Amino acid sequence: MKLTQLQYFKTICEYNNITRAAGKLHVSQPSLSNAIKELEEEFGISLFYRLSKGLTLTKEGEVLLEEATRLLEQADLLVSRMNVIRRESQIVKLGVPPMLASLIFPKLLHSYRSSFPNARLQMIENGTLTNKTMVTDGTLDAAIISCDGFLPAAFHYTDLLLFRIYFYVSGQNPLASQTSVDMEETANLPLVLLAEDSFLTDYLMQYYKAHSLTPNVIIYTNQIATIRQLVENNTAMTFLFENILEPGENIARLAVRNLPAIQTKLIWNANKKISSATQNLIRLSKINYQQSSVPD
Question: Which fold has domain 3-88?
Fold first, then answer.
């Protein structure tokens, strides 16, 4: 017994006529006749009375129609459910830190959509520390993070890009005439930093603590536009990756002599089965970001 045979049988029952059923299904009359014959032979019963005015179900045929209708409805529900699962599996929930949302995500999204037009990247903006937690508990399929060392075995990863950390000050600030600065020089200056769940802020705080320094942080925010305004009007200074704020008349960018370049990575849960859409994102990232040098 096949679902196709049951669908043919059910349609014949709707019309009580093989010719009309064949027209509805766009199949030949012999195909329908053969399907009914095969069902009758398989179950050893007659399904119809063949009368001059058309076909009439036997009692056995009535039972099969009731069960076939229920089975075909269940099959339709199963197909619908699997289609939903298929569509959901094409959505990749990707955690992206605010800074990297502009440095990495646009290019990655363009490349991913070009290669896999039926898939969709859903960007969820959080700091690196929160993203790592959400990858661990399965809330995120993958995340872009910043990292200064080895990751726990709970994560698999592929390297993306290296970025230098710069110190940004107002063009009106006396420091704007310098080309570089030491971390020790920045501790007493008014600072605006990214939110406390960001890698960069956590990294800077650990540095200050290790060197017995207490930074003067006046505000934490992930709003890059707010940070830019506070720097431009000389209210505060900030640490950000290169190319986040464009240096010019209103903003000066100073190299930080004490800090190394920071590696960004795409991470995913090492203990969780990942979807084919996420696997495609990983493969694409490996192709697009196979470089270890610091960008100019």
Answer: Arc Repressor Mutant, subunit A (1.10.10)
